[in-house]
Amino acid sequence: ALQAGVPAHHRFPIWWLGDGVPLESSIARMVDEGLHSFRPFVHPDCGGNGIPPSPTFLRWVQHCVFAPVIRFHAGDLPPGNHRFWIYDDSTQATVRGYLQLRARLAPALVAAGRAVSASGFPLVARCDFFWPDHPPARSNMQYMFLNSTLVAPFYGNDTQPSSPEPGNMTQVSRAVWIPPGDWQDAWNGTVIRGPRRATVTLGFGQIPLWHRLGSVVVLAVEPRLRVSGQNWSELVLEVFPAGSSRAADPAFPQHHLLALGDEDVAEVGLRRSGKHLIALTVTPASAQKVTRGWVLRFHLRRGQQPVAATVDGEPAGLHVLEPLRAEDAGRPASGR
């Protein structure tokens, strides 16, 4: 059920932010709902009202892909048509890349949704959930997605005027508060250390994203139109190791449960052992043992190279992926 602030709204699992909400307000309200209203599953009318120009539409898509729920507004009905294939080829390719990434995030979203049912902790969390002693963490224009990725959407000049045509999005730079710890840029692999403020500049095809070093993200191997159509007999673990000199961040557990079903639960742990050894553990945590293959992708810092890998003490093969190419825009979890 979809509801937007009606009486007894607590009876419904998914909340919609309402009509005519511009992009800036959509981001702020989505982030604040998880803090003030205990609503973990909130979402906007993706695309807003009217038919947005391509840059504005891309900014909406980027925001919605990294939201608890993604739902495009209106279909082919007036006053808005948000079917991405009505746009030019370049826009279509970028949107397709983001939607494929969203589809591959299905295991992570399912696991996060099950965790929400147990704890109420939102999928999209304002940064002061983790760093309450830092005043900049109270901003509702950036957030942590699935406890692992810092997201800071662009939103400038999306004015949503009263006319049917939304304003064009021109913002390509914005200020971001980088939380404590080390953070790897999802687009170029550079690492920035917080806490600090930074200014990021990106083209219309990219959204500011940083992966927390010390985190693990689970993905499906291939995107599918429906979760039920995905094959989870093999999954991908995107691993972002922390530096050897960094102490574990007390805001995050060093082991977390990956619950994909009532009898499909694993405990995933990541640690550094010495200067050159990274240890990842995946331990079944349910009575029923689930047999699954794992593809492990370690995102190393620039200049680092793997020299050997073992699985349960046995040598394992290595394949080094080169940095992202320009045509991978919209697909941070890719490479070649």
Automatic annotation (TrEMBL):
InterPro entries reported for this sequence: GH, Glyco_hydro_31_C, Glyco_hydro_31_TIM, Glyco_hydro_b, Glycosyl_Hydrolase_31
Keyword Hydrolase attributed: yes
Residue ranges constituting the Glycoside hydrolase family 31 TIM barrel domain according to the UniProt record: 5-109
Top-level division of the source organism's lineage: Eukaryota
Domain spans labelled Glycosyl hydrolase family 31 C-terminal: 131-217
Pfam families assigned: Glyco_hydro_31_2nd (PF01055), Glyco_hydro_31_3rd (PF21365)
GO-annotated molecular function: hydrolase activity, hydrolyzing O-glycosyl compounds
Keywords: Glycosidase, Hydrolase
Example of a GO biological process term: carbohydrate metabolic process
Protein's UniProt keywords contain Hydrolase: yes
Span of the signal peptide: none
Family the UniProt entry places it in: Belongs to the glycosyl hydrolase 31 family.
Protein name as it appears in the record: DUF5110 domain-containing protein
Lineage: Eukaryota, Sar, Alveolata, Dinophyceae, Gonyaulacales
